[in-house]
Amino acid sequence: MQFDTGFPTADAENDFLRARRRQVLSRLAAWLRREPDDVNIMLPFEEVVDALGRVGEHRVGLRVIRLDSIVGSVDRTRDFDRRFRPTSGRMRERWQRLALAQRRGEPIPPIEVYRVGDLHFVSDGHHRVSVAVALGHDTIEAYVTEVRTKISAEGIRFRGDLIMKADRRLFLERVPLSGPARAAVVVGDPWRYTVLSETVEAWGFRLMQDECRFLDRPAVAARWYVEEFSPVVEMLQQAGLVGARTEAEAYLSVSEQRYRLMRTHRWDDEVIATLRAH
């Protein structure tokens, strides 16, 4: 919200002080709530793109974007918090000059951002974003460059989410599922993606031994989903062994128990009955 006293210079000074005060109070509130350290940290662009897997980029041009879609920065993650409130007083002079210019209605150059999914990351114009947020604006003009990635940015909120995204990307590189199969195989613990990758690769190795021929990763992934995962999940659902877990989590859990109890890779009524009993 913008507060006006009729004295633009004094108002700009107060704008900065309010932004700093809000940043300090936000840190204190996060500490009192014992929230993770990354709650108020701006997302670093390179880490996000590395986790998702860069495919390419193209220039979109000048657009009007929502300020609440700007979640990170290319290189200024320590100067502002997640909501672009200044984290120190060292930028005060420059910040206030921009706030004064905006209050006087002077033209402000568009910022420059990278777009990843629905998220935007500032490469130039951090102070302009900070001032616009402090003055209660909803949108800002930006030159947009869109970055294409191997997996979607959907679901990224905090820095900790990047671990899950990176492990899922690596899983899909090792087990390149497509279409509905890609969306269906999901786990909640990033480490389980590594275990699932090894499980699928072991299944594919046994398959190639049985058929005495080589199959590439896409072929193994497609056949594993159709011949192993889907039938087994259906059996587990009928036996009431899925519960609140995802289908992939249930599949992994009972696969491990199956081998521990019966030393077999087969699936039949006897295996399901033994698993259910335990």
TrEMBL record:
InterPro entries, per the entry:
ParB/Sulfiredoxin_sf
Name this protein carries in UniProt: ParB-like nuclease family protein
Query: What organism does the record attribute this protein to?
Result: Actinocrispum wychmicini
